[in-house]
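Structure tokens
________________
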Amino acid sequence: MAVAALLAVPVLAQQDSGEAEVHVLPVQGNVYMLVGPRGNSAVQVGYDGVLLVDTQLAELAPQIAGRIRELAENPVRFIIVNTHVHADHAGGNQALANMGHEETGVRTEVIAHENVLIRMTAAPDENVAETQLSPEGWPTAAYFMPHRDIHFNGEPIEILHQPSAHTDGDSLVFFRRSDVVSTGDIFTPDRYPVIDMARGGTVQGVIDALNRIIRIAVPEDKQEGGTKVIPGHGRLCEEADVVEYRDMVTIIRDRVQALIDEGMSLEEVQAARPSLDYDTEYGSDSGSWTTEMFVESVYRSLGE
């Protein structure tokens, strides 16, 4: 597997959204999960307005706007938070920001880590296809510190930068009163994590971010209930699901490291199948992110 194939992953992930619908799932508190064909969003609604975490693909914007209108009538304010730069999570920025402005009369605030803004506004690179949006879709409130917090709809909300995880611009969004964490693509329980090395991702950064989610989450009883976790893709989860996923990534990292220490090449590591016992749950032999690509990203991440 060539490195160029790893760089192309986010581009492939933008395709084939099809005609599937966006569905609304109540989570808890005043937070809802929007389940789309290529990813998830979180929506918080209340007397201040609407806060949307991730806008999904551009072609889904009309559906997402419709679902938001069903949840919130006459919003006063509209805020968008991008967990990272990929188009399956930020592609609808422009359309939904414009919708928020038209319906509230107030400019939509788009919050993201500064690395997201840097990548969105960078000159095109033939080797790395960035999410290209017009200025209306760029972050208007980029933060550069380890975290940013806001108070919206009567709830403290923490936006937490997770360096060098899925990308170098990942954010976790923690709704403290509702007790919900939106993770973006740091946590994707239906597949192996995408480690986007072209945009600063590392396997250790993913593990560190998963550990942070686990520190935030508090189960209600016997590791069930309590904090809800909205992943970038896949089903609604709780802390135990994140623990299982963290353990999987950590074990595969350690196996690959041991094989590297034995002097094995990438091809030899892939042939050893260090993820074999997890492949039935998380792996894939086709699509935009295969098991082989995941193992390669772990190998190269550890090598660097």
About this structure: Confidence is low (pLDDT under 50) at residues 1-18. The first helix runs from residue 3 to 7. The CA atoms of residues 93 and 137 lie 5 Å apart. Residues 3-236 form a domain with the Metallo-beta-lactamase; Chain A fold (CATH 3.60.15.10).
